[in-house]
Amino acid sequence: MGVAARFLVLFTSFFFLIKAWSLPPIIAIGDLHGDYEGTLTLLKKAEIIDEKLNWIGGNKILVQLGDQIDRGAGDKQILDLFEYLKEEAPRFGGEVYPLIGNHEAMNVYGNFKYVFPEKAFYDFENFFSSAPKNYVEKYKHYKRGRLHAFFPGGDYAKMLSKRKAILKLGPYVFVHGGVLPKYARLGIENLNREASQWMEGKRERPHWITDSNGPLWVRYFSKKTTTSHCDMLKESLKILGAKKMFVAHSVQENGINTACEGRVVRTDTGISSYYGGKKEAVLIEKGKLYRIN
After folding, report:
1. Where in the chain are the domains?
2. Which residues does the chain have with pLDDT short of 70?
């Protein structure tokens, strides 16, 4: 490596440290999948809330990487909790960013394959939307309230429209599945805007929402990651002007871990009772990562 190349590496590393040190502590949490009690347990471990659900995280930033819903009975409670915390945290200097995952998107386009038990439907039974009658009638009666709540332009779809698919904080990118180079080139703001407008009922569903290699679905960085996948990650990070990507989506049986020389952090530990995995979060502070368990 020549002198100029070594200088560039040192400068880039120094610039990363400056951006990382300028951020408040960040708590990142993976998939929750309808386990309200498990969610509370982890938020308390991370010293984000107390027993009365008050924000005690000070200036911390809480990032939840999507898939709050499906496979559990506590969907509505978890969604409502994070909306409450989004309002509460800024009073104490904190911030909360719940992201959308593939399961939030599935509910907005009416795929309830993973909604169980039936309580997860009944909690939404009193909602109505502008969904066409012939579309609604395809669903059983007990499912229709949830359909209305999550239909584009419905109450919970509008709630989700305020959430991002991809979040960048300093040198860090947070996303449910991952961002491949072709999507990195489209730009974070463009992708977030398209998702938001769709959930608000203002445009058709963007093609990437259901793309198996799209930001909500791709598993290249979280499962059976190869050298070529790491090369893709490196290119995406360069395009996005970032150093690390935090992903969820694929359960990590041994807990939170990294791959691709630390460029990707995998946060889905199967927190929910459905998976029975470890209840872990990651603390990002001054450029370093710490497990909370």
Report:
1. 13-292
2. 1-16
